[in-house]
């Protein structure tokens, strides 16, 4: 079965929500400043993920070391769209790139890396579709930190509560964030390997 590549996210007219997981020091700075502070390494690539459940899978529901604090970060859609427009796939795809050499050249020069991973259910099992995560660096991460972050919410307590409920078998799926397809233009779809 072909796994579809679509961006599922929680968004409105102005912003789209992405998730990141950090230790308490970085998280507390974020909450105090409304953006990332001095403990955040701005010269390194950072990964943003629109899928709540993929973030839960990756962080072990906030139980993995240095991923105990889950931040829901609402960023301006214009920023997210710029990120998508600069993205290069993290693995070679012959239906997107004319040659391996072209892809490699683009990958080295681009400030954004796009990776498609199996999306997950609440137990961490693949659900038959893929979800996007975006690695950003250089001028794009600077814009992210300085211009595009609209609001940061610490959802760590909710994540912890949900995890306990899942273990006990009394979690209600309606408690999950409502994520729907985020539509992008055909040029971006083609560039990110979203078309079959």
TrEMBL record:
InterPro entries, alphabetized: DUF4291 (IPR025633)
Pfam family of the protein (one): DUF4291
Top-level lineage group: Bacteria
UniProt-listed PANTHER family: DUF4291 DOMAIN-CONTAINING PROTEIN (PTHR38567:SF1)
Protein name as catalogued: DUF4291 domain-containing protein
Species, as recorded: Acetivibrio mesophilus
């Amino acid at each position: 079965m072909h796994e579809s590549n679509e961006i599922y996210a929680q968004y409105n007219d102005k912003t789209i929500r992405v998730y990141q997981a950090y230790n308490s020091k970085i998280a507390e700075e974020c909450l105090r400043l409304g953006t990332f502070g001095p403990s955040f390494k701005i010269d390194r690539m950072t990964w943003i993920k629109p899928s709540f459940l993929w973030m839960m899978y990756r962080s072990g529901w906030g139980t993995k070391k240095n991923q105990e604090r889950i931040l829901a970060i609402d960023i301006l859609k214009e920023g997210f769209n710029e990120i998508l427009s600069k993205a290069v796939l993290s693995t070679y795809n012959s239906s997107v790139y004319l040659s391996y050499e072209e892809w490699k050249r683009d990958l080295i020069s681009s400030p954004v890396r796009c990776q498609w991973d199996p999306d997950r259910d609440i137990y961490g099992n693949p659900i038959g579709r893929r979800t996007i995560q975006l690695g950003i660096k250089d001028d794009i991460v600077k814009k992210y930190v300085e211009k595009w972050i609209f609001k940061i919410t610490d959802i760590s307590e909710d994540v912890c509560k949900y995890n306990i409920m899942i273990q006990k078998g009394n979690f209600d799926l309606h408690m999950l964030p409502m994520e729907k397809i985020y539509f992008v233009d055909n040029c971006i779809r083609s560039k990110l390997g979203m078309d079959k």
